[in-house]
Every structure is written in structure tokens, then in C-alpha cells.
């Protein structure tokens, strides 16, 4: 079924032998609603590890969504790589590049939040990946720390983006869908409104907020409460969380977490933002000081930059 439905480039990657004849599974890595990922090793090599993503055939569309992205991104360094496909009667198994250091969520759980310099380097790589997807008419729809894999031992910040099961190709048809991870949902997802590339950009804003504070901007006591907070889009920057965060970081978040999708800046424009282009010296200089910056000044900064980025938006 995968072989007949998958993009042509991947038909040659469908294995002609059984999975068990080549690989041994060693441990579970992660479980999701539509798949399970297990660590595996080649039988003829004790140190050649891979990640085996197993998707039940009843979720075939999610498998095909992933294959489309793998087809597009096979030469891009910001994406996890696909090596082989096993097309079984009841499931598909993707043999993927193994990220031995796990995902970014594990680091957040250990450290609470990231230093801004670390957050910048990670955010830049994710933005490059998202820009690539958008240029190829694909929306990811599930950007979050769990889908950002660490390729080297922390504090190395080399990452790759993964999990494209919810991704969609944007066409002229109206795309309406309620899917994703609650804390990272955009208002148009919650309200069942048309999705666009800007839907990913909202999630990028939430991601940055989470990376530098360890907290989500709209988290509630329940999923419904969180969705209500998202729909209202009341964005707050508590002093206890942001007193040491640079003004440029806050400004980028303000340009991404915007209720009206067309007013969010794009991935390409975000890559030119002063925060993404900053170094540690400029971060220190722009450190946010609530005692010296009132709300009017903050609003002026965001409005000024918004106009600048909208003029350059493409």
C-alpha cells in the first residue's frame, strides 16, 4: 500500500526483506497518537543505531504526509533523514536517523529554560527548516520541543526537526483541521478557521517563549482552559519570567504571537530579526528592564518593528 501510494522517489527504498532479518529492536524511544518510535540496531553491526518509526496502516495518511516531507528534505541538514521503508500488511516502518541525545523537551525538563544564546541558535535552525517547508508549500502544524531532536551532546545546540505526520500541503483549497499539541495551537486551529503558513509562525512564537522561560504563554488548568486563553490571545510577559530577557527577544515573540494570521511575520523575515542576528554582547545591552521601560515604550518598539518587517515580508 505504501509502495503504490508513496511519492515515486521512495518506492526504491521499500525493503524487499523483512525488518527482523536486518534489525534488532533495543528499546522504546517515544509514543504518540499515531505511531511508536523504537531504537534499533543492525544485526551485522553492534554500533550502527537507527530509529524505527512504526505507523499502523489505519493511519496511512500520516505515513504519506511524512514521506512527502522526507522526499522534499532529503538533502536539507535541518531535517531528520529517512533511510528505508518496510511496507507490512498492517503497519509501515520507517528507518530514520537516530538522535542519540533525545529531544529538546528533555533539556527543558532538566534545566527549566535555556540561555538566550542557546535559544537563538536553536530557533534559527528551526526557522530555517520551517522556511524550507513553507517554500515548498508545506505546513508542519506540530512545532514543539518534543519534535526538535538533539544531534550532539548538550550544550551543543545542533538540532533537527522531525515528526511530519500532521503536516499538510497548502493548496488553493481551504484547509480546516483541529490537530496539534494544545499549548502550541494557533487561534485559527482552536476556532476551526483556515490554516496558513502563519499557523506555524504562531507556534514558533510559543516555542521561543517556552525556550527562554520554561513556561507556556497560555497554559491553563485544562486543555479547554488553555484553548480559551489562546482564542482570547492575551499575551503577558510576567516580570519574574522576563526581567533578564532581552527586548529584542520579546519583540520577536510579539511579532509572532499575533491574533490575526496575516499580521504575523514569516519564517524568512524572522530569520532577519535582530534577536536571531544578535550575539551575547547585544543581548546583554538589550536586557529587558521593567523599571526603565513602561508599557508605552514596549508598544512603540513592537509597532515600529512590525511596520519594518511587514514592509519586508514576502
Short description:
Residues 23-276 form the Protein kinase domain. This protein is α+β, with helices and mostly antiparallel strands and 314 residues long.
Explain this structure to me?
- The two termini are 39 Å apart.
- The chain has helices at residues 2-5, 60-73, 104-111, 116-135, 187-190, 197-213, 223-232, 239-242, 247-256, 267-270, 280-285, 295-312, and strands at 23-31, 35-42, 49-56, 82-87, 91-97, 138-139, 148-150, 159-161, 168-169.
- The strands form three sheets. It has a five-stranded antiparallel beta sheet with strand order 1-2-3-5-4.
- It is an alpha+beta fold and 314 residues long.
- The longest helix is centred in the middle third of the chain and has 20 residues, at 116-135.
- The model is unreliable at 1-9 and 294-314 (pLDDT under 50).
- It has two domains: 2-97, Phosphorylase Kinase, domain 1; 104-312, Transferase(Phosphotransferase) domain 1 (Transferase(Phosphotransferase), domain 1).
- β7 and β8 (159-161) form a beta hairpin.
- It is 38% helix and 15% strand.
- It is built from twelve helices and nine strands.
Helix and strand topology:
Blueprint (H helix, E strand, L loop, with lengths): L1 H4 L17 E9 L3 E8 L6 E8 L3 H14 L8 E6 L3 E7 L6 H8 L4 H20 L2 E2 L8 E3 L8 E3 L6 E2 L17 H4 L6 H17 L9 H10 L6 H4 L4 H10 L10 H4 L9 H6 L9 H18 L2
Antiparallel strand pairs: 1-2, 2-3, 3-5, 4-5, 6-9, 7-8
Helix pairs in contact: 4-6, 6-9, 9-12
Strand-pairing-aware structural class: alpha+beta
Number of DSSP strand runs: 9
Strand content: 15-25%
What is the N-to-C order of secondary-structure elements (H for helix, E for strand)? HEEEHEEHHEEEEHHHHHHHH
Helix content: 25-40%
Instruction: Tell me the Rg in angstroms.
Output: 20 Å
> How many domains make up the 3D coordinates?
2
What is the 3D shape? globular
User: At the third CATH level, what is the topology name of the largest domain?
Assistant: Transferase(Phosphotransferase), domain 1
Low-confidence stretches: 1-9, 294-314
- CATH A-level architecture of the largest domain: Orthogonal Bundle
Compute the number of helices: 12
Strand order across the largest sheet: 1-2-3-5-4
Tell me the name of the CATH homologous superfamily of the largest domain.
Transferase(Phosphotransferase) domain 1
> Mind summarizing the main beta sheet?
5 strands, antiparallel
Distance between the termini: 39 Å
The average pLDDT value, as a whole number, equals 86
CATH class of the largest domain: Mainly Alpha
Amino acid at each position: 500500500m505504501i509502495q503504490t501510494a508513496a511519492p515515486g522517489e521512495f518506492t526504491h527504498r521499500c525493503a524487499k526483506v523483512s525488518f527482523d532479518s536486518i534489525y534488532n529492536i533495543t528499546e522504546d524511544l517515544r509514543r504518540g497518537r499515531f505511531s511508536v518510535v523504537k531504537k534499533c540496531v543492525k544485526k551485522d553491526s553492534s554500533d550502527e543505531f537507527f530509529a524505527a518509526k512504526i505507523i499502523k496502516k489505519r493511519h496511512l495518511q500520516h505515513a504519506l504526509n511524512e514521506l512527502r516531507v522526507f522526499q522534499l528534505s532529503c538533502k536539507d541538514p535541518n531535517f531528520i533523514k529517512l533511510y528505508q521503508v518496510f511496507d507490512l500488511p498492517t503497519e509501515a516502518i520507517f528507518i530514520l536517523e537516530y538522535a542519540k541525545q533525545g529531544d529538546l523537551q528533555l533539556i527543558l525538563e532538566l534545566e527549566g529554560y535555556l540561555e538566550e544564546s542557546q535559544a537563538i541558535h536553536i530557533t534559527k535552525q528551526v526557522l530555517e527548516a520551517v522556511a524550507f517547508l513553507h517554500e515548498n508549500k508545506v505546513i508542519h502544524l506540530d512545532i514543539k520541543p518534543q519534535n526538535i531532536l538533539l544531534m550532539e551532546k548538550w550544550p551543543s545546540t545542533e538540532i533537527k526537526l522531525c515528526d511530519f505526520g500532521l503536516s499538510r500541503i497548502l493548496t488553493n483549497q481551504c484547509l480546516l483541521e483541529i490537530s496539534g499539541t494544545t499549548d502550541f495551537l494557533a487561534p485559527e486551529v482552536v476556532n476551526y478557521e483556515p490554516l496558513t503558513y502563519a499557523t506555524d509562525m504562531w507556534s514558533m512564537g510559543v516555542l521561543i517563549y517556552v525556550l527562554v522561560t520554561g513556561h507556556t504563554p497560555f497554559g491553563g488548568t485544562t486543555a479547554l482552559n488553555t484553548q480559551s486563553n489562546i482564542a482570547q490571545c492575551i499575551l503577558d510577559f510576567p516580570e519574574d519570567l522576563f526581567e533578564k530577557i532581552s527586548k529584542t527577544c520579546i519583540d520577536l515573540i510579539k511579532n509572532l504571537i499575533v491574533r490575526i494570521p496575516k499580521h504575523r511575520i514569516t519564517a524568512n523575515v524572522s530569520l532577519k530579526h535582530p534577536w536571531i542576528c544578535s550575539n551575547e554582547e547585544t543581548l546583554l545591552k538589550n536586557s529587558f528592564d521593567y523599571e526603565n521601560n513602561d508599557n508605552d515604550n514596549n508598544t512603540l518598539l513592537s509597532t515600529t518593528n512590525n511596520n519594518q518587517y511587514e514592509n519586508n515580508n514576502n
